[in-house]
Amino acid sequence: MKIISYNVNGIRAALTKGFADWLKSANPDVLCLQEIKATEDQIPKEVFSELGYKYQYYHSAEKKGYSGVAILSKIEPKHVEVGTGIDYMDREGRVLRADFETLSVMSLYLPSGTNPDRLDFKLTFMADFQKYIDKLKQKVPNLVICGDYNICHEAIDIHDPYEMPMYRAFFP
C-alpha cells in the first residue's frame, strides 16, 4: 500500500495550482491531507473520484476556512473514525483515521505554537493526543500516523528562519 501525506494549505487553492496533476503522477493508494481549510460540501469530490479515489473522508474544523484533515483512498476501509472523541480537539478538525485490513492510517494536523496561548494549547493537545494514542494502540496495533506535526527540527524546516529566529515552531 502506497501512502502519502501532504499539507495542502487549502485544498481548493491547491487544486488551482496543479495538485490534481501531481496526485495523478504520484498515484498513492491512500492520501492523507492536512490543512484542507474547507467543509466537505466545498470540496470538488469529483476531481478525486476521477483519479480513482472512490473513498473520501473529511474532518473539517467548526471554524470556517481553518485546519481540517482528509483521507482519500482507492481501497475501501473497514472502518473510519472521525476525530478522537475529545471535544476540544475535534472542534478543530485535526484527526481522522481509516482502518484497512492489515493496518490503520491516520491523518493528523497538530496545532502550531506561534504565540504563547497557542503554544499552551499545542502542548496540552500533544499530551492528550499521546494518551489517546497509547489507548488506541491497544486495539489498533498497526497504526501509521501521517501528518503535519508543526515541529521544526532544524532551521531549514521553517520558511524564514533568519527573520524569526525564536519562532515558536522550533519548539514542540
TrEMBL record:
Domain Endonuclease/exonuclease/phosphatase: 4-161
InterPro entries the record matches: AP_endonuc_1, AP_endonuclease_F1_BS, Endo/exonu/phosph_ase_sf, Endo/exonuclease/phosphatase
Gene Ontology MF, one: phosphoric diester hydrolase activity
Top enzyme category: hydrolase
Keywords: Hydrolase, Magnesium, Manganese, Metal-binding
Signal peptide (residue range): none
Protein name as catalogued: Exodeoxyribonuclease
Organism, scientific name: Capnocytophaga ochracea
Lineage, broadest ranks: Bacteria, Pseudomonadati, Bacteroidota, Flavobacteriia, Flavobacteriales
This protein's encoding gene: exoA_1
